Amino acid sequence: MWLIGIGMFFDGFDIYVAATVLGATLRTSFSTLGQNAEFVSITFVGMMVGSFLTGFLGDRFGRRFTYQANLAIFGFASIAAAFAPSMRILIYLRFVMGAGLGAENVVGYATMTEFVPPKARGRWLGFISVFVVAGLPVTALLGTLVIPRFGWRVMFMLGGVGALVVWQLRKALPESPRWLESTGHVEEAEAILQAIENEVARHHQLMAPTTTRVIVQDRGVSALLSSLLLPRMVVGATTLIVINTLIFGFITWLPTFFVQAGRSIASSLEYSLVMSLGAPLGSAIGAFTADSWGRKPTLIGASLATIVLGGIYPFVNNPGILMTIGFLLTIPIYVMVTVLFAIYIPELFPTDVRMRASGICNTFGRGATILTPFIVVALFRSWRVAGVLAFMIALLIVQIGAILLFGVEPKGMRLEEIDGDQCAASQAVKRDFESLSPAEDSPSKS
């Protein structure tokens, strides 16, 4: 968790660094307002490309290789950005950084998914999401302390050096035994599992071995259009489009909405800061409810809470109540962020296509962020915040429908059980697991 989580933290740090850096580049005349918009836009284009490519690389060359490669990409690109001689070069480098950032988001959650026991999978993956969300307040704090004294270039240097330190440490990260087994590298998978069992045996009694026949498959992209996986692709793409639109169509626009409503810049930033405190709280709630309530009930409940609070928000004028409603509104949004990005999407797909399926779903989600600013501006000009939130509520209704119609519930299930192609074998495994104590729920030999 720490090796993956710290890398994900720097992913969040680099994503949010634009909020602190672009103001400084504009004030020092290094950039123009138009170039700043290009910088933001090219970030999401790079993330879309990175999300798409890393899925295929991760399923072809392994989780460990892909994880290390994307860390190196955005680490070195960040350091190079600190020495960019012009804003145009910085924009080009931001595209490269974005490709690494988009890849990290896909491979990090998918890798952790394949190591964690089913009964605690939601909780552990939720912790990873908290690492990412923590990048927002840390970036804001460092920007406040560092940029006035040392300039904006130091922010890129901090992100790049941090990523490369984790890149060095993560050479000790083992490859996913599930991926090795799915590609026929059974002896390597067994060696890693044996090392895990030897470590666990020093503190716990090992569970009894199970005798499960695992079907080794290497499905192509066409499998994603099968009757089993296509509905899951619809759920994955739809939910990631919705949550990306909520984040980049509402949360990141809050300071602008407040200023346009006549509030000062200082008070707008204060409101936004208080509301952003709901993000880590929402992530923590999502981490625990995903295992206790289940993925689908948590997502539907958070969607309904967002609809209700979003319907109230435009009609509130009292500053104290506005801040409170905004804080409460942020919580269910980040419950969905955690459950979708960290937990639910990687679980939906079998091991041999997990990365490419997650990557394609993330590509749709990131692609939506390219269009979101234009939609938000048009709605805000015509109907103010009420128009923006009406659009968000409509998307949430679509999301609820997709989850109810096509979603599966992976709560407490082994990843192999979620794969419909192996249902018969997994039922036997489930009976074996139920005969064991909860403490013995650990990876088993196949």
Description:
Helix content is about 75%, strand content about 0%. By secondary structure, the chain is mainly alpha-helical. The protein has two domains: about 1-175, MFS general substrate transporter like domains (Growth Hormone, Chain: A); about 230-410, Up-down Bundle (Growth Hormone, Chain: A). Helix 2 (about 35-60) packs across helix 15, helix 3 runs antiparallel to helix 6 (about 155-170) and helix 9 runs antiparallel to helix 14 (about 320-345). The relative contact order is 0.14. The model is unreliable at about 420-445 (pLDDT under 50).
How are the elements arranged and paired?
Elements (H helix, E strand, L loop, with lengths): L1 H26 L5 H29 L1 H19 L5 H27 L7 H30 L2 H17 L7 H6 L3 H16 L28 H20 L4 H7 L4 H12 L1 H15 L2 H18 L6 H29 L6 H53 L8 H4 L4 H12 L12
Helix pairs in contact: 1-2, 1-4, 1-5, 1-6, 2-3, 2-4, 2-15, 3-4, 3-6, 4-14, 4-15, 5-12, 5-14, 9-14, 9-15, 10-11, 11-14, 12-13, 12-14, 13-14, 13-15
Computed over alpha carbons, the radius of gyration is 22 Å
Kindly identify the CATH topology of the largest domain: Growth Hormone, Chain: A
How many helical elements? 17
Full CATH superfamily name of the largest domain:
MFS general substrate transporter like domains
Low-confidence runs of at least 5 consecutive residues = 421-446
**How can the largest sheet be summarized?**
none
Class of the largest domain in CATH?
Mainly Alpha
Strand-pairing-aware structural class: mainly alpha
The total of beta strands comes to 0
* CATH architecture annotation of the largest domain: Up-down Bundle
* Count of distinct structural domains: 2
